[in-house]
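User: Alpha/beta fold hydrolase, Muricoccus vinaceus:
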Amino acid sequence: MRPLVRQVRARDGLALSALEWAGDEARTPLLCLSGICRTGWDYEGLAERHAGKRRVVALDYMGHGESARAAEVSRYRPERAAADVLDACAALHLPRAVVVGTSFGGIMAMILAVLRPTLLRGAVLNDIGPRIDPRGVSLVGNFAGHDPGFRTIEEAVEYLRRVMPRIPLPDEASWRHFAQLTYKPDEDGRLHPRWDTRIQQAMEAGGGTLDLGPVFRAMRPIPAMLVWGEESEFLAADTVRAMVRDKPDLELVTLPGAGHAPTLNEPEIARPLDRFLDSIR
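Assistant: Predicted structure for Alpha/beta fold hydrolase:
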């Protein structure tokens, strides 16, 4: 099932793009939020498993995918992204949702638990928690502001394999698909990022990492699952243990040997994830 491409506006007029798969309107829809430098197409596999059963919406943040690029770098601050998510939910008629958030998208889910707790019917945090491992901060910092301008998709695959070796992609075709979701051809015939590389400047202006412990604790009443790549550069084992202590009913699913971040299509992840999502009406 191909998704409908929806265009909505944030409160300041910036255009935001979303993919929408139709489904049973009586069930709580899924709202899928990707990581930095990623787009809603990362959720195509999950959406195809749940489309028809319920609506699935995957949002492109400002400066990502088909959403508009901001005139000012300060527009890329995380608090503006959270406001955009709420604006998109209003425009797309999503008063309630199960939020599936990968990396930065999981941070957005935690923030929504504070800003709009009535929105969250459930949440899936994919390889992210209230404390980000410094290795992850360094990884995304070196990647987000870089535009290599690849001549071929093979060059892009080689680069991604080098800088993100622990992504759990099973074969060459999967890496190629991942590269195609990461870079797109431009007028110069080269492949460029599907995000505004100035986002890196906004990240640097934001300073050090935040302690999101109090924000995570706002999720205590909400049914939630944590997906963890056991070799994650972003989510350390001690943070996972602390999350389980803070929220004893948190469902934990681990992918051994995987780094940041599981695609949510791995059989070891997809089966328990889909059971969790199906349990929420």
